[in-house]
Amino acid sequence: MSKLEKREFTASHAEMFESTRLDFLAYAHPTSHGIFAAGLTYLSHGKIDGRDGLGRPTAGYSASDTALSLGYARKLELVDLGATFKYLRSHIGSTEAQGVAVDIGAKRAFDRVSVGAALRNLGPGLKFQDQRNDLPLRLALGAAYNFTASHAVAAELVNGPRGAGTDASFGGEFQAVKNLYMRGGYTTQTAITGGTGFDVARGLTLGLGFRNEKWSLDYAVLPSGELGRSHRFSLAVRW
Fold first, then answer.
1. pTM higher than 0.70 for the full model?
2. CB-based contacts of 111: which residues, under 8 Å, 6+ apart?
3. What CA dihedral angle connects 62, 65, 66 and 71, to 10 degrees?
4. Which domain does 141 fall in, by range?
5. Does residue 148 lie within any of the structural domains?
6. Structure confidence at residue 173 as a pLDDT band (50, 70, 90)
7. Mean of the per-residue pLDDT values for the chain?
């Protein structure tokens, strides 16, 4: 975000498994004092079948999570810095919890190579009734290499300090024809180790995008085995 030179609006929608949907809206505004941004994230889990203590069906209920974020980024002489403050709201049936969290990140570019680090979801957690649940704290380290202005590869390690383990992801992008980009990647987060070749392939992601100076349209698909496939669409406009 620190390198934005134009105002940008982004909207994305993901059709995930089991009627789960993820929507995101964001607007970034460059100024002489840095780049300011605001965003809204909404995750809907759809209708969930209820069960009593004996496992018998009861009335269904819904669950969702919402995050309202305000961000700031600035390009400095040695490093690019950014931070986001998030207001969080989560509800399960008639139970609701609210809280706040902070994301911070830094990036440094060396000719064709860029390296970065981010700490996400730093906060006190969400309290449902008398039970507090920790946020999914994540420490991410990443690097990217640009072969040309149109071809690049990237890799990332994400660690969950609270026992979530470490996942690795890598991928690449190349320009097939003018304004058309093909993408592919792999993440261990959704792959199943020790299974069949099909199980391991669950971590594969594929996508494509159309991009010019004023707008971009992107699509990606992530296979998830028996859960189905996750389809993600995003649109960005710059002016």
1. yes
2. none
3. -170
4. 8-48+57-238
5. yes
6. very high
7. 88
